[in-house]
Amino acid sequence: MFADISVNDALHDKVGDDLVRRLVNNCIKLMSQEVARYRGTLHKTIVNEILCSFSGPEDALLAACAMQVAVNRSQLGGDYPLHIRIGFHYGDVTLKDNDVSGDCVNIAARVTAITRARQIMTTNTTVDALPAKLHSRARQIMRNKSRGKREIFDIFLVSWEPEDTTISRIGQPKLREPSEARNELLLRYRHHLVVVSAQHNSVVLGRGDSCDLVIPENLASRQHARIERYFNKFVLIDYSANGTYIRFSDKRVISLLHNEITLHGAGSISLGLSFSGNPTELIEFIVQ
Prior knowledge:
By secondary structure, the protein is an alpha+beta fold. The protein has six helices and 20 strands. Strands 2-3-1-4-7-9-8 form a seven-stranded mixed beta sheet.
C-alpha cells in the first residue's frame, strides 16, 4: 500500500515551507498510527508518501479507510487542508532489509498514480480476496494495464466516508444547499440517459462494453473517461490516448489529456475527436 499526501500550493504561500514540512510529518504520524492499529508494517517514507504492507487485504482496506478518516478529521493545513490518496494491491512481495519489492508493489504504485486526493483505489485481485461483508465498499470504475506486461486488471474505488457524513454537513452554512437544488448531472447519448447524483456518484465513458455509456467512436479508448460527483461538483477525468473535448454552452471548448475539469452549466462532450473534426458521437450534459 502507498499513501501519498497532497499539499495545496496555496498552503506553501500562506505558512511557508518549514511549517508545511511539520504538517506533513504530523500527517505521516496519523497514518502510521492507523497502520500499526491494523497490524501493518511501515517500510519506508518517501518524501510525502509512505509504503506499508499488511497480513491480508481486509486489514489493508480497513487501515486505508481509517487513515482517510483520521486525516480528514484533523484538518491539518486549516483553510488549505492536507489530503491523502491511497492505492493498494494484494499479492506476494519480496522482503529484504525491511523493504518490499516485486510485481505486487509495482501494481500498487501504478494504482496510486491514478488515484486522486481523498480517494482509495485497489484492484480486482484485492477485492476478490476480501470477505463478502466488505465487497459493497468497493466499486469497479475502470481497467488498467500493468506497465511492461500484458496483464489487464480492474480498478476499484473504495468508499471510506462514514454514512452520516452528508447529514453532519447540513448544519454547516457554507455547505447548505437550497431546497430546490437537485445537484444532478444529466448525460444524454442518443436514446440513453444517465444521471450522476448522490445515489449514483460515478460513471465511466468509453468504447468498452463495461462502460456506463458506450460510445462507438473509433478514437475513443475502451475506458476513456470518468465523471465523478465530488463535494457537490461534477469532475470529468480523462484517462484516454486521444483526449476528451468539452464544449460549453457559451461555445468555449476545453481539451483534456490525462487531466480533469469540473463540469458546469450545459454543453457537449466528444471522446477522442476534436470539435474541429465535426464529431457525430456527442454526449450532451446539463448540471441542475
